[in-house]
Amino acid sequence: MSDRLNLAITCFPTFGGSGLVATEIGLAMAERGHRVHFIARDLPVRLHGMTRKVVFHEVTESDYPALSHSGTYPLALASKMIEVASYEHLDILHVHYAVPHATAAWMAREVLGDKAPRIVTTLHGTDTTLVGTDPTYLPITRFSILRSDAVTTPSAFLRRATWEGFGIPETFPIDVIPNFVDTERYWPTRDRAHLRQLFPGLEQDEPVLIHVSNFRPVKRIGDVVSVFAAVQGRRLCRLVMIGDGPERSPAERRVRELGLEDRVAFLGKQESFVEILAATDVFLLPSEQESFGLAALEALSCGIPVVASNIGGIPEQVEHGKTGYLAPVGDVEAMAGHVLELVREPERWRGFSRRARENVLERFQLGPAIDRYEALYRRLLAGK
Ligand code: GMT
């Protein structure tokens, strides 16, 4: 085995933490001199403009009518994995999401036999807590997890949920490799000019809250609006909403009904929004479930305190009373109270902001996380 690894990564190319984590791993491995391939339906969001560093292989499905309606993506993906593994002599196939990616990887390995790469599966939560344990998919998700050569999760919460949700014995090893953030890119700049472009009448000391997600029901977008409305009733403030999904329209409607449309900016999907994020005051994440909550980590890295629900992997990154506040799911009043404590007390806010950044630098930097993935790949190839 040479020092230079031949690695392929499969992820969903859509907006979402799993695709971002997969892309960052691939780019960082390429920076370290490894040969990196991405096998996906489309170019992952943050890979745009970076493709000279890695090789992209597009998965295309047949447009034959009988096939195009029968969910052939896993088969097309497995075939592409076989092709890339054979031509490129892959060492490692790192898939993000058990269904259908680990399943496709297992199919590819069955076909490739001795020449198959080792399969690393990183679970991200939705595949385990929401979809995987649905009886429709449970047997195949469980099988795909168990057949992987190594499995990782971004939080201890998700490791436990995987063991318990699938009836997998705790002796089955799952490595917790926390998600990470590029702390050079997510930097505490606090340049309010970006916010004044969104809200021309913004006062100098007017707090700005922010939420970033895919606006699915699990994010409880209604609670984001309710927390904002409750804070706004006691202290004038603004809200920036970044992302899109099924809950966006209802949220926009509610904001209009409340007469708050001039105080809320819905920006939709944004490839890069770090300057805006870094200039805001509090990040809101009142989700029903979150295996990790990568968007909150990006905020903490910019020194923005987080007010979130006390569920899933969030307490593993947000320290209650130190870098943010956690409250029970749906407790809008408690969350609004916490936001008010932060925006009314600048000294408290500064302490939270400083500790948030320090904590990220200490525990969630990109380099050490990539070291852990690389060590895992090498351990598998050494047969340990
Ligand atoms: O629901 C989302 O936010 C999208 C989903 C994804 O596929 O990216 O996010 C999951 O993976 C992220 C990266 O590990 C985690 O930060 C999110 O917490 C997780 N979402 C859920 O568990 C609901």
- Listing every helix as H and every strand as E from the N terminus to the C terminus, the arrangement reads EHEEHHEHEHHEHEHEHEHEHEHEEHHH
Mean of residue pLDDT? Answer: 94
**Mind telling me the C-alpha Rg?**
22 Å
Q: Which second-level CATH architecture of the largest domain applies?
A: 3-Layer(aba) Sandwich
The number of helical runs is 15
Shape: globular
Task: Give a quick account of the main beta sheet: strands, pairing sense, barrel closure.
Answer: 7 strands, parallel
CATH topology of the largest domain: Rossmann fold
Q: What number of domains?
A: 2
Low-confidence stretches: none
Through-space gap between termini? 14 Å
Task: Provide a brief overview of the structure.
With 384 residues, the protein is α/β, with parallel strands linked by helices. The chain has 2 domains: 6-180 and 365-381, Rossmann fold (3-Layer(aba) Sandwich), CATH 3.40.50.2000; 193-363, Glycogen Phosphorylase B (Rossmann fold). It is 43% helix and 15% strand.
